[in-house]
Write a structure and sequence with these properties.
Mean pLDDT: 91
Largest sheet: none
Shape: flat
Number of helices: 2
Strand content: under 5%
Distance between the termini: 40 Å
Radius of gyration: 14 Å
Order of helices and strands: HH
Amino acid sequence: MRRREKRSDPIEYLRLRIDMLAEERIKNDGEVAHMVLDKCCGELSYILEMLERQEAEKNQ
């Protein structure tokens, strides 16, 4: 089921998801889960960085 709330800013959404995954990692003790969550956070952080760079270039 989809959430009704829309997120219009992808940068804010990525920050939120990265924070949520980091919290999930703290709750989890599994080594494999840590590797997966770290990989997810890393990939999302890379995308976030690209979007922030793109946004900064637009504002110049």
